[in-house]
Design goal:
alpha+beta; 3 helices; elongated
Length: 175
């Protein structure tokens, strides 16, 4: 029995973003999708649920974005999005009424680098050994490079979302 096994290296684990207050749920999804779309990532929705509670709407989304960098390396970014007590509110800003959302949002990011994702080096045990030695001793610098790229992408996206959420505190207040 042959077990196909590519190495999955965790680069970022449970990087969390929490926010409670006014924000636009549509804008959160737009920021995330635009970020990955401009970097040519593919998208896969793993889980999506939404239901109403007595305190407001509950949303839970689990998505994965991935990109094949070359024939050997694939990057995966997973995120879990939890929104509790989401209610639609109407704010007046500069004489105009704007619809927005109020609630508590939590986003958890995980990053992975997957080597040999096409399982070309898993057909025989000697190939597996050669691949492992090659990755650990000769390709180590390249693997570290891709790990750093994965970390950078997650921290940059987190920073963009944090900037939007912090700005939304002031965006929906009348001056």
């Amino acid at each position: 029995m042959l077990i196909k096994m590519s190495e999955l290296i965790s680069t970022v684990t449970a990087e969390t973003l929490n926010f409670e207050g006014l924000f636009s749920m549509k804008e959160i999804f737009r920021i995330i999708d635009k970020y990955f779309r401009t970097r040519a990532f593919d998208k896969k929705i793993l889980f999506d649920e939404e239901f109403y509670t007595s305190n407001g709407k509950y949303i839970h989304v689990k998505a994965e974005y991935y990109k094949k960098w070359d024939n050997y390396i694939r990057m995966q970014i997973r995120f879990w999005l939890y929104v509790h007590n989401l209610v639609e509110v109407e704010k007046e800003v500069e004489g105009q009424k704007i619809k927005t959302n109020n609630g508590k949002i939590t986003i958890i990011f995980d990053g992975f680098i997957q080597s040999d994702f096409r399982h070309r080096w898993d057909s025989k045990p000697i190939y597996f050994l050669i691949r492992t030695l090659f990755e650990k001793y000769f390709y180590n610098g390249k693997m570290e490079y891709w790990e750093n790229i994965s970390k950078y992408i997650i921290y940059e996206l987190r920073s963009e979302l944090t900037s939007y959420l912090n700005m939304s505190k002031y965006l929906y207040t009348s001056t």
